[in-house]
Write a structure and sequence with these properties.
This protein is 44% helix and 7% strand. The protein is mostly helical. The structure holds a DNA duplex (13 and 13 nucleotides).
Length: 118
DNA sequence: AGCATGACGAACA
DNA sequence: GTGTTCGCCATGC
């Protein structure tokens, strides 16, 4: 089957991304690649970013907790106000310097490990 | 149909 | 550690 338009198929992918992001605990962050890998699209990390771009229409999706592998707030400019993303992360206890999360590795949350299915 | 871009990541020099 | 290149695949022109 798979006769459906891609626009409809990726909708499922978007929904999966949102679900993972919603499971990110407060004070933790993850990367696009980690989510992509968890969804089985490890080489499609850009698609995760694309999904996040649409996440603005979804409530309860803490997109600020999703950064790139460098811990850099690459998507800060997509929050309407560029300072919003950093403000939210600092509010959750993160320390951000030069648009980068300090102790990123220590705050990293890997869905393939913490959100694994028992 | 082809070309350029993108909230990325890994490999390589 | 930095800069470049390639892969990935959906979107826009």
């Amino acid at each position: 089957m798979s006769s459906k338009p891609l626009s409809e198929k990726n909708k499922d992918f978007f929904d999966l991304v949102y679900e993972v992001v919603k499971h990110i605990p407060e004070g933790r962050v993850t990367s696009y690649g980690a989510i992509a890998k968890y969804l089985g699209a490890a080489r499609s990390s850009r698609m995760v970013g694309w999904a996040m771009n649409a996440s603005h229409r979804m409530p309860d999706v803490p997109a600020q907790r999703v950064v790139n592998r460098n811990g850099l707030l690459t998507g800060k400019m997509h929050f309407g106000d560029p300072n919003e993303m950093q403000r939210l992360l600092e509010k959750e206890g993160h320390t951000i310097q030069n648009d980068q999360i300090m102790n990123f590795k220590d705050s990293f949350w890997d869905p393939s490990i913490e959100l694994r299915i028992d």
